[in-house]
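Lab notebook, design round three. We kept the backbone fixed and only want residue identities now. Task for the bench partner: fill in a sequence for the structure below.
Input structure tokens:
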């Protein structure tokens, strides 16, 4: 066809295509890292896809392609990962002071143009940032600091092109777009018949025999700059018999789904289809001394999306504005904005081999980036990490808290009270008491149900109670040397309890039979509602997170008892100075929560009309032990049947954030805590001042090296691809054999004295 051009312009990354052709997935060894090429645009012929990616094989029958019958999603059994080179990722732990004066002391030492400094050195990064600042009045209004610029511009943007090329080749290979009819990088001459506007639209693959064109995106976003061309293509009479296909590497964003649905309406029946070829990109690089990492004293703080997660909603909004402005071609894959970090929980820990670190994996709810929920990742990860090490460092006899109005001097262990794990337990106990008070309101909801029952049975009041939270059996599976935490639900227990501190509601004198009946009704009506809140309400999210960390830590104790691990010196040392109260809670004390509880107990959370001693009046409403936990053994058969994709998802998540193949609403992300020593082929750094550090640990030295990477564009960015309770002791984890890890003593009895509240009513009805 005369309207079809056989040439297109694209940056030539044949090294990435070769890597894909070899079906490389995961992180390449240093010796296997492809040599990176220059960034100059090169003219490249449109050519058969199999030739472009050096593939051989039989073409897939067009009727068997995934989009043949309309929109499709890759089967979960086939979800996998693929590698793409981005050596700049090795610099992601580099920091620079926020203070302009301190920053300029370091940057001022760099007098050469940034291209004169070798890639893979801090000098190259700092000089590039200096160049960026010099072109913007020596300010960073766009990124708001070196860290944001480093991750969003210097590293992420630079990796877009090779990632896109690698995924393009993967789609060609996986789908069998082979043979002489599938042409990659072909440009079509398109005209919008309504406006008479001509366009040149380059598609990633074109098949004139089947009359299909394909656009490939490694993420879930479309290229907004191509929207007029795609609409013109669908309207152009020359291509009225052609079909437009989109292949995405991640589920489509809400904005992209709206866009593709619009194309479907424009194109008519069956002309437009989308296919989500779910695959996780893994950056390939050789780590160096400036590579971010966890250590033997931290876990879960250095995952890319966690480090890049801003601290507040306002910062998140600014980040998303930068992302949208810097990604006009839709090449960025899901970042921190696609994660609800308030749901982050530890779900896996690997075999703790001494000197080799610990693999771990989190789960978190997946959200559309437009939701603006991707903030707070570092704070959440720190809570998990600090809690994990608190459970290791302290002996189990310290894992209790106690809110009892009669015992102001026995609120919690003094050392435990200096940690966020202890704070979370005590505050959760108080929160439960508030929820109990609300549920006991006789005017509405479950409270009304309870008191209607009491009235029907002629019971005049309710006794005081002690409520506490304990674990239901935690489902775990020990497999291939690691521990999967499948479920860790919580249960609320309730028993009659009286205290000496006077209640504003007076006393309730009941017979033994009436006490028993009141408790039965409360267990049937009130307790289940509180238990539902504890297991699902967002205000108990920290408690659930801390419990999961306790389960993991207790298993590590077991493994360390068998053979010393990197955590051996920490376990039972009763030192928690490395994991203190942080952030806005740094000044918290147990007394603050205890005082809040006493106020609630003695004054009530709210009031309502009632009868006291036969006269009209007003009624008001107002501990934790973490040393024990039951267990439930999960068999191999059950694990395989119910979690067949979990091992693969977890394995990928250690290297890169990935979609959960079992639950489409979840993501999995993790890492390894290996602490590098800096030995190996580390080049001697130039004599420049050591950068200051404004947050987090100083990057621990590690080996570095690897090939040089292309010079960045003058902007400092890489090239774009153009298109109350009782104290309990004890707490050991029961040994149940080598296959099934069980959490028998691992965790939770959130023992808390209930409000001890007395409810009175008039005979024959509530006041």
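Proposed sequence:
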């Amino acid at each position: 066809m005369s309207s079809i051009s056989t040439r297109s312009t694209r940056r030539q990354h044949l090294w990435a295509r070769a890597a894909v052709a070899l079906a490389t997935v995961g992180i390449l060894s240093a010796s296997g890292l492809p040599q990176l090429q220059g960034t100059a645009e090169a003219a490249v012929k449109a050519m058969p896809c199999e030739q472009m990616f050096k593939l051989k094989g039989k073409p897939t029958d067009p009727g068997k392609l995934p989009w043949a019958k309309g929109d499709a999603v890759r089967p979960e059994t086939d979800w996998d990962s693929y590698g793409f080179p981005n050596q700049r990722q090795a610099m992601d732990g580099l920091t620079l002071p926020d203070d302009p004066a301190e920053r300029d002391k370091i940057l001022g030492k760099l007098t050469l143009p940034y291209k004169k400094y070798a890639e893979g050195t801090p000098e190259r990064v700092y000089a590039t940032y200096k160049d960026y600042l010099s072109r913007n009045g020596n300010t960073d209004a766009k990124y708001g600091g070196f860290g944001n610029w480093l991750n969003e511009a210097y590293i992420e943007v630079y990796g877009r092109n090779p990632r896109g090329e690698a995924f393009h080749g993967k789609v060609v290979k996986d789908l069998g777009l082979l043979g002489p009819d599938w042409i990659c990088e072909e440009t079509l001459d398109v005209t919008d018949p309504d406006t008479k506007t001509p366009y040149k639209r380059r598609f990633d693959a074109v098949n004139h025999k089947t009359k299909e064109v394909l656009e490939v995106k490694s993420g879930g976003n479309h290229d907004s700059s191509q929207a007029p061309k795609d609409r013109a293509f669908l309207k152009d009479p020359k291509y009225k018999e052609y079909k437009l296909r989109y292949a995405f590497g991640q589920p489509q964003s809400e904005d992209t789904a709206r866009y593709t649905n619009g194309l479907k309406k424009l194109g008519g029946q069956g002309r437009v289809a989308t296919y989500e070829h779910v695959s996780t990109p893994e950056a390939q690089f050789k780590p160096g001394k400036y590579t971010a990492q966890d250590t033997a004293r931290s876990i879960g703080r250095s995952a890319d999306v966690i480090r890049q997660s801003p601290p507040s909603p306002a910062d998140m909004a600014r980040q998303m504005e930068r992302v949208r402005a810097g990604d006009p071609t839709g090449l960025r894959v899901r970042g921190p904005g696609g994660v609800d970090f308030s749901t982050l929980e530890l779900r896996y820990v690997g075999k703790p081999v001494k000197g080799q670190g610990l693999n771990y994996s989190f789960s978190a709810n997946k959200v559309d980036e437009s939701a603006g929920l991707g903030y707070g990742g570092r704070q959440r990860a720190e809570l998990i990490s600090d809690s994990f090490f608190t459970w290791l460092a302290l002996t189990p006899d310290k894992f209790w808290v106690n809110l009892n109005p009669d015992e102001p001097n026995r609120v919690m262990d003094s050392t435990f009270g200096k940690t966020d794990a202890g704070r979370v337990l005590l505050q959760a106990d108080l929160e439960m008491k508030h929820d109990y008070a609300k549920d006991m309101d006789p005017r509405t909801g479950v409270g009304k149900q309870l008191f209607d029952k009491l009235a029907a049975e002629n019971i005049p009041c309710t006794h005081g109670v002690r409520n506490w939270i304990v674990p239901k059996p935690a489902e775990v599976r020990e497999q291939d040397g690691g521990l999967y935490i499948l479920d860790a639900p919580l249960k609320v227990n309730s028993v009659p309890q009286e205290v000496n501190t006077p209640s504003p509601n007076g006393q309730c004198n009941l017979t033994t039979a009436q006490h028993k009946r009141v408790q039965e009704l409360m267990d049937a009506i009130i307790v289940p509602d509180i238990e539902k809140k504890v297991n699902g309400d967002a205000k108990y999210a920290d408690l659930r997170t801390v419990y999961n960390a306790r389960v993991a830590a207790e298993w590590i104790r077991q493994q360390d008892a068998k053979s010393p691990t990197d955590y051996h010196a920490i376990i039972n040392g009763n030192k928690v100075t490395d994991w203190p109260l942080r952030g806005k809670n740094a000044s918290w004390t147990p007394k603050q929560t205890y005082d809040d509880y006493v106020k609630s107990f003695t004054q009530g959370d709210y009031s309502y009309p009632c009868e006291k001693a036969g006269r009209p009046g007003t009624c008001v409403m107002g501990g934790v032990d973490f040393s024990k936990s039951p267990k439930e053994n999960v068999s191999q058969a059950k694990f395989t049947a119910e979690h067949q994709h979990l091992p693969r998802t977890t394995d990928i998540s250690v290297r890169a954030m990935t979609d959960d193949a079992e639950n489409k609403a979840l993501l999995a992300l993790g890492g390894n805590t290996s602490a590098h020593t800096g030995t190996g082929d580390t080049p001697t750094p130039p004599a420049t001042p050591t950068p200051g550090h404004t947050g987090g640990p100083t990057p621990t030295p590690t080996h570095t090296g690897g090939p040089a990477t292309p010079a960045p564009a003058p902007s400092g960015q890489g090239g774009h691809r153009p298109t109350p309770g009782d104290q309990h002791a004890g707490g050991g984890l029961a040994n149940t054999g080598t296959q099934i890890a069980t959490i028998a003593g691992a965790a939770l009895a959130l023992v808390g004295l209930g409000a001890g509240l007395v409810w009175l009513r008039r005979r024959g009805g509530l006041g």
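Keep this in mind before ordering anything: DSSP finds 17 helices and 28 strands in the chain.
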